[in-house]
């Protein structure tokens, strides 16, 4: 049974978030920004993983590992594992070090490269997917993952309210999937949640 997050880990997460905010405030080049998830959004995702007993997680967009640590902390309860993808080598090196500091490195497989290309070959099935990278590529990634999802699955995507034009294609792709219930939670920068229950899967 998961206990409350200990003080050392909470302080590490607070430090990483503050470091990311300072970096992004002066960094002009997007690929060098850390663009960390809002703390309340990260906390909500961890609760969803724990309450839904999610075990096979895919995160697209590792950055420095801030959100990855939240997810890894959650899967300690479920006996799960995470595959996290990012195209920036330097960011994944930071993520690896930060996960090690958090004592959670063994729960996460880090893959570096173009997310769409990697998603095509990544092994499933996944019962939880978090889209938090290139919003324009998310619809193609969703399509590639369609046969790699468990019947009972939760799909999440950030930045619905902060970048509505960029994420519109993903939201349209989700709305076109009749088996999924979809909602947008006004937390952080806007979180899309799409849930498919096993009972909704149409079997041949």
From TrEMBL:
It comes from the Bacteria. CDD domains: AdoMet_MTases (cd02440). Keywords: Methyltransferase, S-adenosyl-L-methionine, Transferase. InterPro entries: SAM-dependent_MTases_sf (IPR029063), SAM_O-MeTrfase (IPR002935). Pfam families: Methyltransf_3. One of its GO terms (molecular function) is O-methyltransferase activity. GO terms for biological process: methylation. This is O-methyltransferase.
């Amino acid at each position: 049974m998961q206990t409350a997050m200990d003080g050392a880990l909470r302080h590490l997460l607070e430090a990483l978030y503050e470091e990311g905010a300072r970096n992004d405030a002066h960094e002009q080049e997007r690929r060098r920004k850390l663009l960390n998830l809002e703390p309340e959004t990260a906390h909500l995702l961890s609760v969803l993983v724990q309450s839904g007993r999610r075990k096979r997680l895919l995160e697209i967009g590792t950055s420095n590992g801030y959100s990855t640590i939240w997810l890894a902390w959650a899967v300690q309860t479920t006996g799960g594992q995470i595959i996290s993808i990012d195209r920036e080598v330097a960011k994944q090196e930071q993520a690896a070090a930060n996960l090690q500091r958090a004592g959670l490195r063994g729960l996460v497989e880090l893959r570096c490269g173009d997310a769409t290309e990697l998603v095509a070959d990544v092994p499933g099935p996944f019962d939880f997917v978090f889209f938090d990278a290139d919003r324009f590529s998310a619809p193609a990634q969703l399509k590639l993952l369609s046969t790699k999802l468990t019947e009972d699955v939760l799909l999440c995507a950030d930045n619905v309210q902060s970048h509505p034009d960029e994420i519109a294609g993903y939201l349209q792709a989700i709305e076109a999937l009749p088996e999924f219930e979809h909602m947008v939670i006004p937390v952080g920068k806007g979180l899309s949640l799409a849930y498919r229950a096993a009972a909704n899967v149409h079997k041949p």
